[in-house]
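Hi R.,

As promised, here are both runs. First protein below:
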Amino acid sequence: MYGWGYSGYGPLGQTGYFTSPIKVSNINTAVGVALGGTDNTQFTYILKKDGTVSSLGYNYYGQLGNGTTSGSATVELQGVQNVKDIVQVSGSQNGYFGAFVKKDGTVWTVGYNQYGQLGNGTADNKSVPIQAGTQGSNVLIVHEVTLASSIDDDTPMGKTGTYGGNNTVVSNITLRGDNGENKYDAFNISSTSVARKFNLNLGVDEEKRLTSSDRLTFKSMNPEIATVDSAGNVRPAHKGNYGSTVILVEYNYNDLGVVNKFKGMIRVKVAPYMGVASPMVEAGGGYTIALKYDGTVWAWGYNKDGELGQGNTTSVYSPVQVKSSDGSSYLTDIIEIAAGAYHNLALAKDGTVWSWGYNNKGELGNGTAANSSLPVKVKIGDGSVDLTGVVSIAAGYYNSFAVRKDGTVWSWGYNNYGSLGLGDGANRTTAQQVLGGASGSQYLTDIVEVKAATMHTLALKANGTVYAWGYNYYGQLGGNGTTNSNRPVQAVTGAQKSASGYFEKVVDIDVSSGNDNGYGTSIALTESKEVYGWGYSGYGPLGQTGYFTSPIKVSNINTAVGAALGGTDNTQFTYILKEDGTISSLGYNYYGQLGNGKTDSTNTTAQVVQNSENLINGILQVTGSQNGYHGAFVKKDGTVWTVGYNGNGQLGNGSQDNKSRPIQVGGGGSNAMHISYGKIMHGTTVIEEFDNPNNIISNITIAEDDTFVIDKSKITAKQSFSLLPDTDTLSANDVKITSFNTKIATVDNNTGVVTPVKGMYGTTIILVKSGAVQSLIRIKIKPSETDEPKSVASPMVSAGSAHTIALRYDGTVWAWGYNKNGELGQGNTTSVYSPVQVKSSDGSSYLTDIIEIAAGAYHNLALAKDGTVWSWGYNYHGQLGNGTTANSSLPVKVIGVSDVVSIAAGYYNSFAVRKDGTVWSWGYNNYGSLGLGDGTSRTTAQQVLGGASGSQYLTDIVEVKAATMHTLALKANGTVYA
């Protein structure tokens, strides 16, 4: 695990700040990581293969979950206590608590709990987790995959059959895992569904489809989640691990004896059988949000701005279900969530994004700057159209990001220093497309993931390279300098020492920063399962103290499968999830957010996250707080575990006691491969077919008894400049497909069939490679749909500043915690301490068919199954994307974007990835965090510019993550733009 940026209290394993990745710890079994914290008090959670969590950093409120509280730095790995079988961890956005999801679906929190963010019905801080509620350039683009299911023909990603198309970058897919009866979802990546692409072009994008004779190679970064075989068949690992992983896809193209390597990736999430989403948690500043397997979202903690989505601003200390936009029902069919400091994003199954909470910077993306305590739909452009086609979301401090199916990145909200990537510093209240900047295109393209902090943003390209934009005083952009950029710049190799000179082979990214001081930190997980970091590391979140302008190795851990940053101001912390399900942590630990039982300041050595008894294990996902001091983890059993600051109840244990050991919530490159053709299958029945050459298959949710088939015969590779034909259809034989997490899903390289692992409801990446090109598809697994309510999404949770939202398998969204801005989606601003179901836009029913959620600081996003995005909460900067700057305590549709496959919520802005691989952003745009080439906030979704990506607009994006003023976008080829 690696980290970079500020590490004052040791969240990166060292104190200081680092402008390039450093190794966070010596853990070599990490499978997930998350950061939390606020100001200068960051902390880190590291989820390990055995389901335990380690932590580092600030621990004053016990957020490290080690049973102690300390204001000193914690650079030694702490064991988060009282939790095991964790499948996901999350640190607070602008807070001091963490949240974890266990295998059984329970949510565990730890740390500060003043606003009930721990979700246990009290305001007591906890230092031990409690249960919420009761206790390069070359890129390989996967344009489509073939979904199949033995459950039914309606997967979280839609009907079985082909998913994606020529304009789709398959970057994020949800699969439903095995229920014990050999019923699950799966998908296949075929060479003909992949394109090799060279994105650096002075005029137009150039790509070429692979042929059936082209050979791809595949690899799952975590076979415990999802598996992939040599034929590109991805399926859940059938081990009951409902989390996410990355499937790496690679293609080696021999051009007259010169071999060009193209890389791509797919993030696969595995949901339980009959589920909608892969369980996950997200930590906001003082609240936590959680996504359940049924697609519902739950939240707890701080709710002053409506972060809990309850339609009020009353903080609660136990999980409450996030309501729908109308406040009378609950948010449903959510497949991903993201938490900013005070707002949240929720990605719905239909590709739309919902947001709620704080919206002063427009981070809700609904075209207003008014807070919303209920979900509102994220808008695009002028605010008249919903953001759709999103496949991944990211929430920054005050802004939000989304990666669309086409691989582009969209941003909204706070844009100081150009953190929105729009070419200026103006905030946006709707999603705008992030510019390409240094990517080589007008807009950033081929992105699979984006992560955003306060004033800087990262984007991961499908080829594993990273782009960044926004504030860069501490080197958080990773470009080996300190010059700000309102357009994407490519991260350099740093300590990785790649031959290309650029940071590469990245499969996951994260960022952290808090308030407006600009202490930005960035980390990245590489194919070698190591973590690098750059930026500020005052308390050691990057394994060293100082600041680093290029990647440094965060720790000696070489078994990392996940990483997350948390913190605020200069107090960042890092979580490194290892293969064994345990977590290591570094950085700020004043509130115990490192989960090692201590509360010290600086930790430059990886700490072991553990509960009161032993190492927390079985962790599948980790997350750190946006502008806070807590972390949250999801365990294999579905429980959520939190650690750190709990003054707002963000740990979800019903109290406000900080936890230094995790507690259970509620109680106890330019060349690209394009995959546009594929289908979701249920047995022999095609549920959904992807055949649009203008789209890239990037984010898919399927049932555990379905399969996802990638048409290898239609995979293409594209070069932006070549003396030979600039596009090629790769040979299916040369296309290699692998699953990044075979515990979630496997893939048959010969047939391109991705098959979920029974009972593993999470996310994994399907990586398609052919020679020098590659692409990736993020797969989410949900339960089968044989019973009511119907399975819609892979369960997940996301934490806002002081509230938590959760997505249930049935596509409903739940929230709890802080709700002043309507973050809970209840049609009011009353905070609640137990989960409440997010209502629909009319307040009389509940938000449904949501396949992904994301939480910003005070607003939330929800991606609907139809590709539209809903948002609610704070909206001062237009982060709700509905064309206004008025808060909404009920979901509103995001204007200006459709066909969304992924969403991201920053602190004050929002992002969406469309099926065509483009990214759209809206809301707060300080420092250009929306990626629109300026710093103006947007109230509707706008297409993120290409910046350094080599095209006019960012393309081929599979995932976006947003902080306050910076955003990350992951391209299908595995490269990152920011």
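And here is the second one, sequence first, then its structure tokens:
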Amino acid sequence: MDNPLGAEDGSEFNLLWETSKTVLQMAEIIRTTEIDEEERIFYNHLRLHCMRFQDCLTRAPQIWSQPKRALISDALCYLGSLIPEVGLQELPSNTTLKPRLKALNLHWSEVQVQAHNAKVEFVVRWLKLGPPEVYLKVDRGLEECADMLEKQQPENGFKKSAYEFLSTGNYEPSYVVWKAAQSLFDALQKCKGCSCSKPHEYGAKLELGTYRSPVKKLDKRSANRCNPRHAPCSDGDVTGKIDFEMFLSMEHDWHEVRVQSVKEKVVGFAIDGHSTPSREIRKAKRVENLCKSINSTKSKAWQRLVLKLTSGQLFNDRIEKSNFWIDKSTEPISLLRCFEERHEFFTEKTKRILSLIIGYAVLHLHGTSWLQSGWGSANIKFFQTTSHKTPLRPFIQVDLPEDATNAGDEIHSKDADDLDFDELDSGHRCPALIALAVVLIEVYFAKSFSKLAQISGIPLENPGGHITLFDVDQVFNGEEENKVEGWRSQIPEDSPLLMAIDNCLNPAMWEDEEGDPLDNATLKSRIYQDVVRLLEAHLTSGFSKIPLDNVDSYARDLDFGQWGQTIDIHEPQKLTSPLSQGSLTPNRTPSPAAAVLDSSRFGIPTKDYLKWRSEYEKVYGKFMATQLPGPPSKPVKIAILDTGIDRDHDSFEAREENIKAKVNFYNNMQKNIPDLNGHGTFTASLILDYAPDAELYIAKIADKENATPNAKIVVDAINHAIDCWNVDIISLSFGWPSTEFEGYDDLEDAIDRAYGKKILIFAAASNSGARLGRAYPASSSQVICVHSTNTSGTPSDFSPTAEPNNLNFATVGESIESAWPMLLCHDLATPQRYVKSRSGTSYATPIMAGIAAFLLQYSRLHLSERASSALKRKEKMEALLKRCAERGPNYAPRGNYYYVELSLHQHNLFGRELERINDEILESLKR
């Protein structure tokens, strides 16, 4: 675009700042009014573009090159094109662009103090969109300007603006769901009465979903067959259908029900506020007694009742075959219980999907009786199927109260205790968003909020009860007086999730300028724009191939109980069978004892591994050894928990200065840490092979036999590494096949402490091949799990199957040569070298820990302190390891493993110049 503003004098910067602020406020108002849906989408995009301009101008207000000035001029031209050149009484005819924009800002500042209707009238007069092809061109132009401005920002660490994650392709959803949901609740209440001798106890579980599927034009036959949930209606639809999947209980016996809420265009008179049902609905029989309808399905195995909801009334439609075969002998498991007992359920993918679905639940159900006061993770339930799958299908559970007349008022009633909690909620106008923030925090850390508070040492106002904004502020943001660091420090500061949580907890966002509650339309729109949309970005930034319009069905196909693996829809369902070992019931068969992971039966010494290691040593020599005049000023500290070491071995005598401390936790009466097994000497030597400038801290936690480490000993060693050694990395080459062992809770707490202190933990996956999954603690979400490959990157047979919805890191773990205790070397063929060749994930683990130490030391030498500090976060180190594994633009992980191998080859990250490597690392830290 030509620059119509004349000579550059710096005023364009201020003009864009003021104009983007004005247009942002105008778009905020007009998008909540009754306008065309395409125009509403445009105003949402316009609002986002202005926010991005504000962000760019705030971050770099002083440095503007000529290309950047041209972009500012283009942005002003696009914004100015929305203002009519003629027809405005406040402007003379044919006013040029710059005066028009200044007049807009001036008059808007005057209108700001007027009533809402006056503001709407002003926006309608001053913003003229024209035909769609015109305003869509403006939309694309503004987006391009914002993109280019962000790309030309000066280096600012590695922080990425959260707005960069937001796609303008996402549309704002329909808000009709909440009306239908409340109507359903009210209709259920009306049907509870019956003539049975004993009152029934009713409960309901409503499936949570996004209801994001795009509207499709259907012929009559497909309309009769389709699941209406996959064709949600917009507010303007006249015959749209919303499908509610739910379970109803009578005396705690759950029965599947599908309710079709039909929104109709009715011609006729309304009686007492209720419209007359259509002819089609009148043919169906009205539900008079809920108990009778539920009982009608009891004798029909694996079938569900279909009800229609219209005009506030329920009608029996039919009974149809169910495709969700729940195991009625197993109680549904709550999300809270998953945090407390089944944290291994959570992968990065299931966390992000679950966060989005629950965010949408608040958007759709806030203000209804489904989302009752005090709701939280305890109210969100998951069913187990007869084939022992746990589909990622969350349900919100509520009781249907005795007194139907008060059901609608229950969520609004307050007693004295509620008023006390209101004070602790700082007058937050939307407590449901506080509850949402709590659940989002819990899901991210896979821990209950009370557990997070306990780890931080912060007492809650009402333990086991209502969580207040005051509680959340202390636990999440920290407590300065007692120097307690908040859990927010563990979430990347550029994360859309963090912004969504902050927005939920900000009372000012949920009230108008006078401090009054927002009207319902504005509230719903703001929840979507400032919370849910960020959760969409949180999902798509990590898993871009998951379509937002298909999240509900995508989640249903994931087995939450098996790390989010896809459920085989062709697998035959077992309608009756005893509970398997993987069942969710607490009485599970104890798993075998843990062992130091060893696989000495694998492989013999090969030249391939030594060549592989030499390629790594070339990288270390080029970017580390030649750059350091002496020992690093801030060396990386690594703790290894194993069977001790042979201090007299040549491998350690030559590197005595690297060993900074040693403690015998296995026998605290003994100061030495003799290795009578060999495993510890082997792994410790490997760490120094790959991190020769690191400081090594050795904890002996097992002895001669390849035996079970005592969990208490491991806990003591980890806590010592945290509190006394202040290490950066902990290497664990052992594990338990499951979490069913004595001392698990204490060990989990110790790992949580290390994670909270930004200590990277690497743990061996296991050597059971496809027979078992990851061992614990490698299965912990706070730990980086290490698998094994050969020197070509082919997964080892003994390495567990890669988890499809998790990051699977692997490095060489076959035929590894390393130091072996001299007293244990009985092989006369090579007695003088005192080395052995071994294979196993427990040997891939110290190699990966050593590579991570190199990356950390590299960042301290070549990058900013901020970048090197970020690498101590598990998520950032994983992002960099993932980048190290990538080979070219079309790289795909082999066998779903990210194979980490460093060399000077041109396809490798370190096969390029230093400046390019640094740029790539900083870019990976933005992910």
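A quick note on the second one: The first helix runs from residue 11 to 30. Let me know what you think.

Best,
J.
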